[in-house]
Design a protein that fits this description.
three-stranded antiparallel beta sheet, seven-stranded mixed beta sheet, binds pyridoxal-5'-phosphate, 361 residues, alpha/beta
Length: 361
């Protein structure tokens, strides 16, 4: 991703907004954070939002505020960024991995119910690459077994499933403002959205060490606060979000057309979903050779993700072995993310696509 290309288009406004925060010396919290919370709640079709320090802390705070901890199990996908399952383990709970739907790369909702035990407290679907997971069957299982649903929507702000917004279907939704996201800050940041007022109050208190009033700690929380400088920059970027997402979608359509009828498998988007294409992830034969070839030709690309979480060294204690979750394992060997950022030109897309196609022959 070329972050400088985007920055060049909004540099003046960003500098002004950051200077405003500095001049005010409102260095923690304040009106910028509150304004961003209000706006993110609105675009997510949720009643409440809590700004936090990162997408990771959005997930961590959600788990802590739902009192999920030692002895509990949380069902999730192994084909995601580490933070999803890392946070489950950090609160002392056990990540229970179920395999993915190979078409969408999202959790296979049909495999969730068989994984439910008496210890299951929550399901954490991840809306990967910009496309939401199959939420109806997930909510059906959650309702039947009285489980919380934490939507890891880090990659999917404003994405929809059957017309409903990412983050608005489960108990809570977690967003990341990591700079490469569709709405990316100038550093780390995140947001939690919910329609549950009681939970909102808890999330709000937990982000400030669980204190309310100040210095009286009803809960053990953390410092999960969103930096007002990040909030100010995000408020500058927010009005551009739809336009940037549309540009990503146009880039995806361009690649789709270039790769039609070739050995390259383009992303499958469910008719239930509108994706925001945070990533454009293809499956390609001889993937590692293609990566090397692209790098030789100065084309940025990335493998999301090279190792499924159930086979990560730190999760050895969970007892998974190779072959346990075959679709996730297969995906890690075949996927390749191509440049999709909004400022990408047709020439660059054409060069990336042609370089792959000529290599594959
Ligand atoms: C699926 C997923 N979950 C969680 C996170 C964590 O977000 P952050 O990097 O803001 O902590 C990310 C971000 O990279 C992500 O892609």
């Amino acid at each position: 991703m070329d972050l400088k290309a985007q920055y060049a288009t909004i540099k003046k406004e960003i500098l002004t907004a950051v200077a405003e925060v500095l001049e005010s010396q409102q260095c923690i919290g304040g009106p910028k954070v509150a304004e961003l919370e209000e706006k993110i709640a609105e675009i997510s079709d949720c009643k409440f939002a809590v700004g936090v320090s990162s997408g990771t802390d959005a997930i961590l705070n959600s788990l802590m505020s739902l009192d999920i901890g030692a002895g509990d199990e949380v069902i999730t996908t192994p084909f995601t960024f580490f933070a999803t399952a890392g946070c489950i383990a950090r609160v002392g709970a056990k990540p229970v991995f179920v395999d993915i739907n190979p078409r969408t790369f999202n959790i296979n909702s049909a495999l969730i119910e068989p994984a439910v035990t008496e210890k299951t407290k929550a399901i954490m679907p991840v809306h990967l690459f910009g496309q939401m997971a199959d939420m109806d069957p997930i909510m059906k299982v959650a309702n039947e077994y009285e489980l919380s649903v934490i939507e890891d929507a880090a990659q999917s702000i404003t994405s929809t499933y059957k017309g409903r917004n990412a983050g608005s279907i489960g108990t809570v939704g977690c967003f990341s403002f990591f700079p490469s996201k569709n709405l990316g800050g100038i550093g780390d940041g995140g947001m939690i959205v919910t329609n549950d007022e009681k939970l909102y109050n808890r999330l709000f208190i937990m982000r400030n060490h669980g204190s309310n009033p100040k210095y009286y700690h009803k809960y053990i929380g953390g410092n999960f606060r969103l930096d007002p400088i990040q909030a100010a920059a995000l408020l500058v970027k927010l009005p551009h979000l739809d336009k940037w997402t549309q540009a990503r979608c146009r880039n995806a359509a361009y690649y789709d057309k270039k790769f039609a009828g070739t050995a390259v498998k383009t992303p499958y988007i469910s008719p239930d979903c509108v994706t925001i294409y945070n990533q454009y992830v293809i499956r390609v034969p001889r993937r590692d050779e293609v990566v090397a070839h692209l790098k030789e030709n100065n084309i940025g690309c990335e493998i999301y993700y090279p190792v499924p979480l159930h086979l990560q060294e730190c999760f050895k204690y969970l007892g998974y072995k190779e072959g346990d979750l075959p679709e996730s394992e297969k995906a890690t060997k075949e996927v390749l993310a191509l440049p999709i950022y909004p400022e990408l030109t047709d020439k660059m897309k054409n060069y990336a696509a042609e370089t792959i196609l000529s290599f594959l022959g």
